[in-house]
Amino acid sequence: MKPYLYALGAVLCWASLPAATGSGLDGLTVAELLFFSFVPAALYLVAQEMIISRRVGIPWPGPSLTALGLAGIFGYHALYYLALDHAPLVEGAILTTTWSFWIVVFSSLLSTKRMSVPVLAVALVGLLGAGLVVSGGKSLQFDARHLPGYLMALGCGLIWSSFSVALSRLKPTHDYMPAFTVLAALFSTLVYAVSAPQSLPPARALFSALYLGLVPLGLSFTLWNRAVTGGNMTLIGYLSYLTPPLAVLLAAVTRGAAVTPHAVIGMAVILGAAFAGRRMS
């Protein structure tokens, strides 16, 4: 049961990711947002690991896991920020959530060596519910001018799902998320330095970046790592469909946006897919 509670905790953190990223990009470039979000995330995770383990230092992975972590953590978020910087927030957010679908597909293929029709059907129903919630029931307009952003958003789904499934299959003996995040912070610092920043960004944008670092990038990494290394990835993939509806509810609380009937229906569809996936697993 604990792995699925960890997964839900990570989902709650990620529900705020699109809104916080959009707020950060209002006053920061992608390079600045990477730097000002990953550095506090790394400091937070390293401090947490040292307090929990009561040791000076953090576990460091071997070369293959290091490459996996760098691609999964830095690669995903760099592409995510770029995607939402080049595509409308709603459509971009929907396309990035395809990692939920790909987790189900990849984990099923690796477990059974084939894709069963029921698993594929449930995954598609869950993805349909996620799209219904985020779009508010309206038809999505994909402008060709935003095609690079859409492609980057789709790439996010493939990167994060591959990273999560690979981590689940490898089952590392230590929590390497702090090390992965330190690597991402170092690369972010390099990108930031190369971009030659001229002045300190606005305080509100910096606060959004700090929030990103401590919650969607910091706390969520710990929760997600514990989920994927101890739970059933197919079920975790279904639970991740909760991210879009919770993001809508969070927007309603923080911005006063109305929750449409489509959001309620979509959430019911997503929860139904999650329960069906659990029974099938």
Textual characterization of the structure:
This protein is mainly α and 281 residues long. It is 78% helix and 0% strand. It is built from 13 helices and no strands. It has helices spanning 2-14, 17-25, 30-53, 63-86, 89-96, 98-112, 117-135, 147-170, 177-194, 203-228, 233-239, 243-255, 261-280. The protein is globular and about 50 Å long. The model has no long low-confidence stretch (mean pLDDT 82).
Which key features would you list for this structure?
281 residues, mainly alpha, 13 helices
List the helices and strands and how they pair.
Layout: H1 2-14, H2 17-25, H3 30-53, H4 63-86, H5 89-96, H6 98-112, H7 117-135, H8 147-170, H9 177-194, H10 203-228, H11 233-239, H12 243-255, H13 261-280
